[in-house]
């Protein structure tokens, strides 16, 4: 490796940007490119190509189809994904050691893992959780009494099954016709969400290898996987069939890369499957409805504490304190301390402070900051926001 470090640093930044763009992409698939990449994966492993590709719209649909196919086919995740990725990762570090660049590649690996936009945490984990939770809630008949999670509709389920049925062989269809949709089936689907490739969202495992390939390392066993990751969303590989899912036409996040939309789904797929989320946390659709008709009654009647906090934030904490008639319990030179008692949750305690920096027009903005319920004075509460005790806090000497 004779490439100057500055050149590598620039290439790494461009590569990181490309991976992030791919992870959040809603571009259409290149069908021919997907077919070629799938054939490459099987060929590199010395296996015949699958008899057919099954095209589906969402990771939920892919997990359901995989749970059906596993009864007549062999899941090749270990042979076609785990093994080549593991071997090529070992080869990367061996080649780096031979070239005397191990420390450089350790630094590159750390930079990739330290990236603020963690796709695995921000997208993959919530989607996996929703696949498992929604199927469990639906097929165990154990509905959440506080509706913390969104459950897919009957129309979505019917559409997913219809799409799968259209692409089944007679043998697979016979399996489906005898399948019992129960807790065991829900578990089987959730398990399949771990035995698949994540396409463009697979930065955790493929990003370092992809960059090494770009920098001239020969890593032939993952050529097909890298090519497919550029083309598709989640995919499953069996001996007779490969399941490929399309990218979602809509995927919305906040500035931290977390799934977020207060006006509708954060992720929406063409088969109707949605993931509702706010600041990275899954929420039921009724939280979205609340955003269009905010009222104190819905907040007061909400029994799920996590959802209740979302509703208060959407209502506006300052407005909520005013409308809910929060009580000012103490005031000093640092601000004013308010409390709103709650029989279901800990008391909501906020400190009202003035921004020390005037706005361009000379006005001074006020802010409400939530603080722990054991705060006794505004000074103690403001000090807590600076990770200080009341005795340590001296705003007159701040710089």
Topology:
Layout: H1 5-23, H2 31-44, E1 52-56, H3 59-69, H4 77-99, H5 102-113, H6 119-139, H7 154-165, H8 170-177, H9 183-192, H10 203-214, H11 223-229, E2 235-237, E3 241-245, E4 250-251, E5 267-268, E6 274-275, E7 277-278, E8 281-282, H12 285-292, H13 296-301, H14 305-315, H15 317-323, E9 327-332, E10 335-340, E11 348-354, E12 366-371, H16 378-385
Parallel strand pairs: 1-3
Antiparallel strand pairs: 2-3, 4-5, 5-6, 7-8, 9-10, 10-11, 11-12
Helix pairs in contact: 2-11, 3-9, 4-10, 6-9
Key phrases:
2 domains, alpha+beta, three-stranded mixed sheet, 399 residues, flat, 12 strands, single chain
Notes on the protein architecture:
This protein is of the alpha+beta class and 399 residues long. It has two domains: 5-251, no CATH class; 326-397, no CATH class. 47% of the residues lie in helices and 12% in strands. It contains 16 helices and twelve strands. It has helices at 5-23, 31-44, 59-69, 77-99, 102-113, 119-139, 154-165, 170-177, 183-192, 203-214, 223-229, 285-292, 296-301, 305-315, 317-323, 378-385, and strands spanning 52-56, 235-237, 241-245, 250-251, 267-268, 274-275, 277-278, 281-282, 327-332, 335-340, 348-354, 366-371. The strands form four sheets. The protein has a four-stranded antiparallel beta sheet with strand order 9-10-11-12, sandwiched between helices. A three-stranded mixed beta sheet has the order 1-3-2, covered by helices on one side. Helix 2 runs antiparallel to helix 11, helix 3 (59-69) crosses helix 9 (183-192) and helix 4 crosses helix 10 (203-214). The longest helix is centred in the N-terminal third of the chain and has 23 residues, at 77-99.
């Amino acid at each position: 490796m004779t490439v100057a470090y500055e050149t590598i640093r620039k290439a790494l930044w461009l590569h990181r940007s490309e991976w992030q763009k791919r992870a959040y992409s809603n571009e259409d698939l290149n069908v021919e490119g997907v077919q070629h990449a799938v054939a490459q994966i099987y060929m590199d492993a010395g296996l015949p190509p699958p008899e057919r590709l099954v095209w589906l719209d969402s990771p939920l649909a892919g997990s359901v189809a995989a749970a059906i196919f596993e009864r007549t086919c062999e899941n090749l995740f270990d042979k076609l994904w785990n093994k080549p990725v593991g071997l090529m990762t070992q080869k990367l570090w061996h080649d780096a050691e031979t070239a005397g660049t191990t420390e450089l590649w350790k630094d590159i690996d750390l930079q990739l893992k330290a990236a603020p936009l963690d796709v695995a945490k921000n997208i993959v984990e919530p989607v996996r959780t929703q696949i498992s939770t929604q199927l469990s809630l639906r097929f165990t008949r154990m509905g959440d009494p506080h509706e913390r999670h969104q459950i897919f509709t009957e129309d979505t389920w019917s559409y997913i099954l219809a799409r799968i049925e259209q692409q089944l062989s007679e043998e697979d269809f016979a399996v489906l016709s005898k399948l019992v949709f129960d807790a065991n089936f829900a578990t089987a689907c959730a398990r399949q969400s771990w035995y698949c490739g994540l396409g463009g969202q697979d930065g955790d495992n493929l990003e370092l290898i992809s960059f090494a390939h770009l920098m001239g390392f020969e890593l032939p066993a993952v050529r097909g996987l890298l090519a497919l990751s550029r083309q598709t969303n989640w995919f499953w590989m069996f001996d007779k069939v490969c399941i490929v899912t399309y990218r979602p036409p809509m995927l919305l996040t906040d500035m931290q890369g977390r799934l977020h939309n207060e006006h509708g789904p954060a992720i929406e797929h063409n088969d109707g499957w949605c993931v509702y989320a706010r600041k990275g946390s899954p929420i039921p659709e009724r939280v979205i409805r609340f955003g269009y008709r905010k009222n104190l009654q819905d907040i007061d009647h909400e029994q799920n504490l996590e959802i209740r906090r979302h509703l208060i934030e959407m209502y506006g904490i300052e407005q909520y304190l005013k409308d809910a008639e929060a009580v000012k319990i103490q005031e000093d030179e640092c601000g004013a301390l308010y409390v709103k008692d709650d029989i279901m949750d800990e008391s909501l305690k906020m400190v009202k402070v003035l921004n020390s920096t005037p706005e361009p027009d000379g006005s001074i903005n006020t802010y409400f900051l939530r603080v722990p319920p054991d705060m006794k004075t505004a000074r103690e509460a403001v000090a807590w926001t600076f990770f200080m005790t009341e005795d340590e806090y001296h705003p007159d000497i701040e710089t």
